[in-house]
Amino acid sequence: MHDLRSIRDNPDAFDRGLARRGLSAQSSDILGLDQRRRALQTEFQELQARRNEASKLIGTYKKEGRDAQPLLDEVAALKEKMPALEQQEKELGAELDGILASLPNLPADDVPAGKDEHDNVEIRRIGTPAEIANAKQHFELGEALGLMSFDLAAKLSGARFTVLRGKLARLERALGDFMLDIHTNEYGFEEVSPPLLVKDDAAFGTAQLPKFTEDLFQTTNGFWLIPTAEVPLTNLVNDAILDADELPLRLTARTPCFRSEAGSAGRDTRGMIRQHQFYKVEMVSITRPDQSVAEHERMTDAAETVLKRLGLPFRTVTLCTGDMGFAAQKTYDIEVWLPGQGMYREISSCSNCGDFQARRMKARFRAKGDKNTQFLHTLNGSGVAVGRCLIAVLENYQQADGSILVPETLRPYMGGLERITA
After folding, report:
1. CA distance 241 to 66
2. Measured between alpha carbons, how far is 31 from 14 in angstroms, rounded to an integer?
3. Which of 140, 164, 287, 363 would bridge with 248, disulfide CB 3.0–4.6 Å?
């Protein structure tokens, strides 16, 4: 949600920010609605003051024996007019809020301009991809091992689901445990086990609603299945006022995530890259405004540490204005090397949302000794997507005989197992 006061103070800056997102100027329409609403508010307040004044005079007139009927008629007319004014003001307010809620966050000044993923800027590359002769993709490896089945999943649930068994199921669990241990023990994140179903307010607070309704799954009684643990974790501060001393608040969770993948027909139809259900370890930070830039770097480092420890080659890119998510002010994507595809694919996305989500959630903090409150800054990042990390391990550690070496750092989580075989 955007700050209406900021738009009033500097409409040109607001329109420039939207232009960087490829959107047309909106400040004129927004401020026009705002002016009409404020005029109605002023008129309503003036009528309310006159009604109160006239009501007091009625009593005075009656005591003095004067004719109070004109005042009674005036009060009656005001009472009839005021509800209509109030309703008009509410309707304009709802229209204004709808516009403000439909517009994406403005990009930070240092976000590179661009139209799509081809304009993203690589900032570092870690590790050198190994040369693997006749490298296979993860689904070929998993099916050959007899531990990954898309046919069985299709019988149960349809397309874009997977059944993992035996050592691959354990590998998926081990990866999640490994990630959580890094984030909690080394980076100070608090582990949370949140609900997987949320209400409208929670999905609106993190900006999944109303724009991304088609990307979500909804139950018949109105709950939304979480597309990421960002939704429940960030909403833990919904409509709250925190003390500045509590910040930064760092939270992490491993949860199933559910996405309809609307609009992805024909993309990644084979394998586990794009699923309706998958596991992800999520990181969320709640900070003061002056902390969020540094926290963004720290969060990205935590995600990168997972891949470094696993020995997986990756690169980190800054997303351009045209490729950035709706709620993000600035985003780093981490892309892991997949030998079977011969390319880097996204495995983590770490975003600083500034106060964009906090305004939607009414999430604030108060500095010590300060009577006024300020909006918090929120950040979120994958630490990392467990399914995609499983894919990366399978492809990068594949052997000529079809077996999979278990990365040394994961072996304690796998009961000492060194190799996964059929």
Report:
1. 54
2. 12
3. 287
| H helix or E strand, kind and range, residue 233 | helix 230-234
Of the candidates 148, 187, 126, 180, which has an alpha carbon nearest to the alpha carbon of residue 336?
126
Looking up tokens 């004719």 gives 67
> Is the peptide bond preceding residue 384 cis, with omega within 30 degrees of 0?
yes
State which H helix or E strand residue 56 sits in.
helix 27-64
Q: How confident is the model at residue 414 (pLDDT cuts 50, 70, 90)?
A: very high
Selected catalytic residue, list 36, 170, 173, 274: 274
Domains of the chain, start order: 4-102 (1.10.287.40), 117-420 (3.30.930.10)
- Indicate if 274 belongs to the active site: yes
User: pLDDT tens digit string along 206-265?
Assistant: 999 999 999 999 999 999 999 999 999 999 999 999 999 999 999 999 999 999 987 777
Choose the catalytic residue: 298, 359, 364, 388.
388
Q: Largest Cα–Cα distance in the chain?
A: 108
Full-model pTM? 0.93
